[in-house]
Fold these 2 entries.
Entry 1:
Amino acid sequence: AQTVTQSQPEMSVQEAETVTLSCTYDTSESDYYLFWYKQPPSRQMILVIRQEAYKQQNATENRFSVNFQKAAKSFSLKISDSQLGDAAMYFCAYRAGGATNKLIFGTGTLLAVQP
Amino acid sequence: NAGVTQTPKFRILKIGQSMTLQCTQDMNHNYMYWYRQDPGMGLKLIYYSVGAGITDKGEVPNGYNVSRSTTEDFPLRLELAAPSQTSVYFCASSYSMRDKGSTLFAQETQYFGPGTRLLVL
């Protein structure tokens, strides 16, 4: 069975600095997708970034980028120039390719941004 | 384009009562999902649907039922509420499409609703 592990329950970063959130996963599949979702206090889940396993290039979305290490099954999120609005719970998620489409979530990392 | 909408936002139920959580999406997505999120935990899949008339169990389906009579709507039914069902419930949707770089079907990103907070006392 696939699993997603986030080993950092909480992280803190100073405004304008860079922070990296860790995520590891376990799967025997070769085709899959990885995601980072942000959940602010409003509780809505917001997609931050998406990575296809078959792509070697790391995904980037503005200030957000990932370090995807397929062999190590690692998928970390880097937030550059952190802003107060980045404070939220961040969830790493895995989805196998193919006809099924079930997201498996990690337990989350609570990010605090200090002014 | 409202995306995924959920009602109600918050509800208190007594043990043994029943209720339906509503979910509607206006993006013409084939796939819809129901998740629950317990305090301090990630989301767990309850049920999902790949199209109107088709539903399947997720990771934690016990105590719930779903139906999918239209593409837009995917209600979640709790028949006999129990304290263990106290949680925040999220509905999500996605569109299934063939990925240009893969021979397998690759689904688009899941879009989430704002959630329904349920308290069972």
Note: The longest strand of chain A covers residues 88-96.
Entry 2:
Amino acid sequence: AQTVTQSQPEMSVQEAETVTLSCTYDTSESDYYLFWYKQPPSRQMILVIRQEAYKQQNATENRFSVNFQKAAKSFSLKISDSQLGDAAMYFCACETGTASKLTFGTGTRLQVTL
Amino acid sequence: KAGVTQTPRYLIKTRGQQVTLSCSPISGHRSVSWYQQTPGQGLQFLFEYFSETQRNKGNFPGRFSGRQFSNSRSEMNVSTLELGDSALYLCASRFSTATNEKLFFGSGTQLSVL
């Protein structure tokens, strides 16, 4: 079984600034994937970024990038040039290669201020 | 392509009743997963169906059941509803290739049990 921990219930960032959301995980599997999902008020979960554990290179998607520290089991999300539309709940999640199900963290609510 | 469609968006039931939720995956996706989201327990995996067969199951009582049809549409049923079943139920369809895999979520069905 795996666990995912997000220790920041809420974060705030000013528009155009950079913010980092933290996530730690634990799994006994060697084959796993890590994700960050965004859930705006519309409630739909939207994939922000995906990282394969076997890849050392950190994943990047436009303004979103991760800092994947495998030994420390840490997977943080950096949002650069924050925009008002980035305001949402952000969930970190883990999926092992043997079981096609996501284990989610408790989420971080991100506020973006002017 | 249309996204993942869940119906209905909102549902109000009373204790003891049963309910059926529907999910239509993205065309061509054969895997459908269900998740329950509550303020107290967060996001929890219910089950996954692939080609009409349940492939994986979470730790929920037998009152929670599902099925998948030949067109990949899926239904989730909860019998003998309890107050604690009030939640947002999210459905996701999976896109898989040899090198990539993504989950696409619907906007959910908000179930309230009175």
Note: The CA atoms of residues 55 and 67 of chain B lie 11 Å apart.
